[in-house]
Amino acid sequence: MISIKKNFSLKNYNTFGLDQRCSEFIEYDDVAELQSFIKDGNISGKRLFQLGSGSNILLCDDFDGTMMHSQIKGIEIVYEDAEFVDVKVGAGEIMDDFIAWSVENGYCGAENLSIIPGTVGASAVQNVGAYGVEAKDIIKEVEMIKIEDGSIHVAPNEELHFGYRLSRFKEDWKDKFIVTHVTYRLKKEPDFKLSYGGLAKELEGKEINLKSIRETIISIRNNKLPEVGKVGSAGSFFKNPIVSRSIYDEICRRESADESVIVPKYDISENEVKIPAGWMIERCGWKGQSHNGAGVWHKQALILVNNGNAKSSDIIELANTIQVDVWSRFGIKIEPEVIYINNL
Ligand code: EPU
Fold first, then answer.
1. Do 217 and 237 belong to one domain?
2. Tens-digit pLDDT profile for the chain (344 aa)?
3. Can you give the CATH number for the domain in which 247 is found?
4. Residue 225 CA: which ligand 1 atom is closest?
């Protein structure tokens, strides 16, 4: 079924809980139906945005365009051999429902992404990641409809040009396709990724299996991140910047001049490291601080929150001020991970 609503409030469709509207809101749950809808010219020429569960967006204003909201569901094994299982999942499924399913069935690969907010479709667009695993590591291929003519296209992983919180859907394929299904390739044998930030330590003394990894990640995240549904946020607001080792060394020298500070980093390559933006924001004194209705989460400074009655402008102003402060102290430009939705 295809449902069309006009002048629709998105308050329950963005995790910041901002009360902005869109001119049109279209929901669909069937690929063939959506294909004919597109072929009949129903969305051509419109300003579009494909909305998942709104967990990584900032609605800057009322959106003068059409929000496309997938309700395509289903988790189906489409191939398996002794080593792998390929699972085709509807873009409108909640990512964590699929992860819970994979852990329940003993398939390995998705567990580090446990309780990551968002939908399956968005996992491919944004290449979501946590605890050393990114969606790209388990995505085999993505099925989509071409907006121009309603045809189906299946793109293998290599064609999707994945990067850090990046895919082709945010670059040259932007507004060209609607993602309908994602096929993930999972392993039947254990191949756990435990090296990231304290995960192995948290697992010490526990039996290590898919269930214990999932439970541990859920508990780490619940301790650090605001509870979805209770506190408005969009997870990490900024990306962690990638800088050269010489810049990193310089920051270490400056920051540890009069105290013994260890600047955290993730190694990216021989010459590059990623510095956690949350650490820099905390060093600038922003952790737990507020600006009008918006605030910086007191347990994780990378997360901006709606303190209850934030306007979009409060969040935008807070983000801008933090960017300026980080630039002044570290000489590093931090970029939002959250997608700003406006009418520009
Ligand atoms: N840190 C601080 N102060 C803070 C926050 C972090 O000092 O307020 C330090 C921590 O002590 C640690 C380092 O910064 O040494 C990294 O912190 P954390 O492990 O919390 O992860 P992150 O780099 O801030 C990234 C992802 C998260 C993901 C976690 C865990 C990005 C932008 N964010 O955050 O993803 O859950 O790693 O893998 O890459 C998201 O994208 O919405 C998201 C939550």
1. no
2. 999 999 999 999 999 999 999 999 999 999 999 999 999 999 989 999 999 999 999 999 999 999 999 999 999 999 999 999 999 999 999 999 999 999 999 999 999 999 999 999 999 999 999 999 999 999 999 999 999 999 999 999 999 999 999 999 999 999 999 999 999 999 999 999 998 878 989 999 999 999 999 999 999 999 999 998 899 999 999 999 999 999 999 999 999 887 788 999 999 999 999 999 999 999 999 999 999 999 999 999 999 999 999 999 999 999 999 999 999 999 999 999 999 999 98
3. 3.90.78.10
4. 44
47 is a domain residue: no
In a domain, 21, yes or no: no
Tell me, yes or no, whether 262 and 218 share the same domain: no
Would residue 93 count as lying in a domain?
yes
What number of other Cβ atoms are within 10 A of residue 292's Cβ? 14
Among 200, 224, 248, the domain-final residue is 224
CB-based pocket (< 6 A), ligand 1: 130-131, 196-197, 224, 235-236, 239-240, 264, 276, 278-279, 282, 287, 300-302, 337
Q: For a pocket test of ligand 1, which of 279, 283, 337 has the largest count of ligand atoms closer than 8 A to its C-beta?
A: 279
Alpha-carbon distance of 176 to 173, in angstroms, equals 5
Final residue in a domain of this structure, among 224, 258, 274? 224
> In DSSP terms, which residues pair with 179 in a beta bridge?
144
Domain hosting 120: range is 75-224
